[in-house]
Write a structure and sequence with these properties.
The protein has 298 residues and is an alpha+beta fold. It has a five-stranded mixed sheet with strand order 2-1-4-5-3, with helices on one face. It has a four-stranded antiparallel sheet with strand order 7-6-9-8. β4 and β5 form a beta hairpin. α1 packs across α2, α2 packs across α4 and α3 crosses α4. The two termini are 33 Å apart.
């Protein structure tokens, strides 16, 4: 596991102060005054005022000393801002602020790049890869679906057949029609065909060639089978029960937790998460996995 910050903010000094001043984060009175003072004196440029201030500063040693003191206090002010943001987001991990000029070596989602003033969350699986908070839940759902297929292949699957799927709104009521299910399929990354009444068309989802090794759990998927009940049950049924065919249920919950919860908190404070958070309807998917006989793979 990586020890890198779970949440980072790409921002230079001026942008960090602007974010602090314009967000819904609550700062104490003195800290708010300090933010406004440094922002107005060092990052707001007015040619006429600048000329006057330069002259006055040249004549006033005390003023020069005060400005020097303010500049030296900037690192401490940034630390206080980040500490307060962390407190209001109610997260345990540290928030790391990185200048847009210091993002070399960091990786972002395909087609994305670091933008000044934006938050990013560490990818749920990949080290040194950061994604927009608004995409976190969708990325996690797609990773689970991809893990399901890779695990099935490693366990010696012959075919995966999608049998049915159920969709529930945020009140727990069964959703009918095709509009909501199609949106959910897009988020998760499952390609499904629907009848006019919203029923799932049963079809072969994936088909695999004969395995070359005995059934096993790949090293990079072991963490999934430890924390995800659906995938752990699937692996145990095959490895311990030597099943040839069984039903596998995958659940994708609508409630936010972990990185998804952090994304929602960031958005609630008026901060940039890169877009709106998709309202993932809870869904349950029913698959039938048929395997090659284990004797043929040994």
């Amino acid at each position: 596991m990586s020890n890198k910050a779970e949440l980072i903010l790409i921002a230079d000094d001026e942008k960090l102060l602007e974010i602090a001043k314009g967000s819904k984060i609550k700062f104490d009175k003195q800290l708010a005054l300090d933010i406004a003072e440094i922002l107005s004196k060092f990052f707001s440029y007015n040619p006429f005022a600048a000329a006057i201030n330069t002259t006055l500063t040249f004549l006033n040693k005390k003023e020069r000393a005060k400005e020097s003191k303010n500049l030296k206090a900037l690192p401490l002010l940034k630390e206080q801002i980040l500490r307060q943001i962390k407190k209001e987001l109610n997260i345990s991990s540290e928030i790391k602020c990185i200048s847009p000029n210091n993002t070399e070596g960091m990786k972002f989602d395909i087609g994305d790049k670091a933008t000044n003033g934006s938050f990013y969350l560490k990818h749920p699986l990949l080290d040194n890869v950061y994604i927009r908070p608004c995409n976190y839940e969708a990325v996690l759902a797609r990773e689970k679906e991809a893990c399901f297929r890779r695990l099935a292949s490693a366990l010696g699957a012959k075919t995966i057949t999608l049998k049915d799927a159920k969709f529930f709104d945020n009140k727990g009521k069964l959703s009918v029609g095709t509009t909501i299910p199609q949106a959910v399929c897009t988020n998760i990354g499952i390609n499904v065909q629907f009848e006019k009444d919203g029923a799932v068309i049963k079809e072969v989802y994936s088909e695999f060639g004969e395995p070359r090794v005995a059934p096993y759990i790949p090293e990079h998927l072991k963490s999934w089978t430890m924390i995800d009940t659906d995938l752990r049950t699937m692996a145990q049924d095959r490895l311990e029960g030597h099943l040839i065919k069984h039903q596998v249920t995958l659940q994708f919950k609508e409630s936010f937790s972990g990185g998804g919860k952090i994304a929602a908190e960031i958005a609630d404070k008026g901060l940039d998460i890169g877009g709106s958070i998709s309202n993932n309807v809870s869904s349950v998917w029913f698959f039938e996995v048929e395997y090659y006989p284990i004797t043929e793979t040994i």
